[in-house]
Write a structure and sequence with these properties.
The complex is a heterodimer. Chain A is mainly alpha-helical. Chain A contains seven helices and no strands. Chain B is mainly α. The chains are: A mainly alpha, B mainly alpha.
Chain lengths: 146, 67
């Protein structure tokens, strides 16, 4: 199994923070990287469109949402910069739904960052009944052999 | 009881879409086969959405009717 240095894994996690799936791409999981990039970007863009591009804001009322959205940095911070002039003057009926989509996209990107770490440093598989031996059976066999 | 069915259906649609997208991402963790990720994610997402709508939708309707 290939071992990755901590610096490589750190770079992959930062890359994922900016673009979902970039870390998996760097680790060689190309198809999975594309899936994450497409799904999370779609989720974020749907949120932006629903909220009429007012989902990402730094006002006090929006700050907690911004913390979640900020976990997808590659879209959040450019959007914040590009849309900071848009005002909440009219009624925006889908503002809450849009904020929800964008925030959940950011939060799910945190899961993807964790998955990058687990891809680089996989946990050992647990022994289960599906492996052909039960843990009790394995214990009995170990006792017999001793 | 005054129910705006158009808005209700629209929000149900957004809810199902959000659950499906989240489910696909979540079920991709610790899996490598993209086909399996999508299959499992969509199946579990639809199951979760159906149960949620049944519980909270029907329960909420009955509660609103009772109140």
């Amino acid at each position: 199994m290939r071992r990755y240095s901590p610096a490589t894994v750190f770079i992959c996690i930062v890359a994922t923070w900016i673009i979902p799936g970039a870390g998996h791409w760097l680790l060689g999981r190309r198809k999975k990287a594309l899936l994450y990039a497409i799904v999370l970007t779609a989720m974020f863009v749907i949120g932006l469109v629903l909220a009429e591009f007012r989902a990402v804001r730094s006002d006090d009322d929006f700050f907690l949402y911004l913390l979640g959205e900020g976990l997808y940095a590659g879209l959040t911070f450019p959007t914040l910069w590009l849309t900071h002039g848009l005002q909440l003057v009219a009624e925006h009926p889908r503002l809450e739904v849009g904020r929800l989509f964008a925030t959940v996209a950011g939060l799910m990107n945190l899961c993807v960052m964790v998955d990058v770490y687990e891809t680089a440093y996989p946990r050992p598989k647990e022994l289960s009944a599906n492996d052909g031996v039960t843990s009790a059976g394995a214990l009995a066999a170990a006792e017999r052999s001793a | 009881m005054n129910i705006r069915y158009g808005e209700l259906l629209e929000h149900l649609g957004w809810f199902v879409l959000l659950v499906l997208l989240v489910s696909v991402v979540y079920n991709g963790l610790r899996r490598d086969d993209v086909g399996e990720i999508i299959r499992v994610g969509v199946r579990r997402g639809l199951l979760f959405a159906s149960i949620s709508i049944a519980l909270f939708g029907v329960g909420g309707y009955l509660l609103a009717a009772w109140l």
